[in-house]
Amino acid sequence: MGAQIIDGKAISSAIRQQIKQQVMELQQKTGKSPGLAVVLVGEDPASQIYVRNKEKACQEVGIYSEVYRLPQETSQQQLLDLVHQLNERQEINGILVQLPLPDHLDEMTVLRDISPDKDVDGFHAVNAGKLLNGEKGFVPCTPKGIITLIKSTNVDIKGKDAVVVGRSNIVGKPVSILLLNENATVTICHSKTADLKSHTQRADILVVATGKPNLITGDMVKPGSVVIDVGTTRVEGKLTGDVHFASAKEVAGWITPVPGGVGPMTITMLLQNTVEAAVSQWKL
Ligand SMILES: Nc1nc(=O)c2c([nH]1)NC[C@@H]1CN(c3ccc(C(=O)N[C@@H](CCC(=O)O)C(=O)O)cc3)C=[N+]21
């Protein structure tokens, strides 16, 4: 018994099939493939895995990709020089600088120097502003994937109580705006929220993106609700979500697993954004 599992892996592969088709059509029409540059600074093992997965995903769907692996001691200027070069390169439609950057580098400055037209992560202030204003721009990959996963349940978002736990610029804030755009009533909770449980218990849609393993237990979940777990923390070698899966799945109506939920969707949305970038830069 218990919740239906939202299979992010299966939904991802269906969308990747469509993207592959679209890339083939673009190649036939233009003789070119969309191109993505991924920049990784330092040797964080988790980042290495993500970057390799992104590279593989690009290959699968026919997106051209370049990966720049820069040493830990790369200077701010060296990183900015690379970003500027990539901004100018015709064959590169999307640029992603893997976060977090080493402490001596200023993320905000680096993100601001990526051309907003190539900002497939949707982290540039221009794209964040467009999202807030309801203008067309790049939507961050994880939030975009989350909305796709919620819609896959056929639960109508309109008028529902959505509670987002976490207020990062990468997930919490943008997913809150997307849910608001879908006409949910949105509450944003965070580490200073007084009574977290009182909020999560009322959530028809619960999105958890805190990086605190097993923060949300079954007693904090509303019966029948949609629970989206964004956390992927390695605990004793095992990838662990922010939601205690075993107890939450007895209460929720739908729930995403970790792994195999939000993670694969993030990469799929990156592929989608890269194709979008190419189509718009090629003026198709
Ligand atoms: N500029 C930038 N853009 C990002 O999108 C970005 C980033 N920096 N920094 C790190 C986070 C994290 N992130 C994930 C992507 C895929 C999985 C993923 O595919 N996870 C698999 C499991 C992978 C594994 O086994 O480790 C899953 O959940 O099933 C997870 C996490 C993207 N991020």
What does this structure look like?
Helix content is 42%, strand content 16%. The chain has helices spanning 8-30, 45-61, 76-88, 107-113, 125-133, 141-152, 172-181, 196-200, 245-248, 262-281, and strands spanning 4-5, 35-41, 64-70, 94-97, 161-165, 185-189, 205-208, 226-229, 233-235, 238-240, 254-255. It contains 10 helices and 11 strands. The radius of gyration is 19 Å and the shape is globular. A 6-stranded parallel beta sheet has the order 1-11-8-7-5-6. The longest helix is centred in the first third of the chain and has 23 residues, at 8-30. Strand 2, helix 2 and strand 3 form a beta-alpha-beta unit. The chain folds into 2 domains: 31-121, 3-Layer(aba) Sandwich (Rossmann fold), CATH 3.40.50.10860; 141-263, Rossmann fold, CATH 3.40.50.720. It is of the alpha/beta class and 284 residues long. The N and C termini lie far apart (49 Å). The structure holds 5,10-Methenyltetrahydrofolate (GUE). 5,10-Methenyltetrahydrofolate binds at residues 49-50, 53, 96-99, 121, 141, 232, 239, 258-260, 263-264, 266-267.
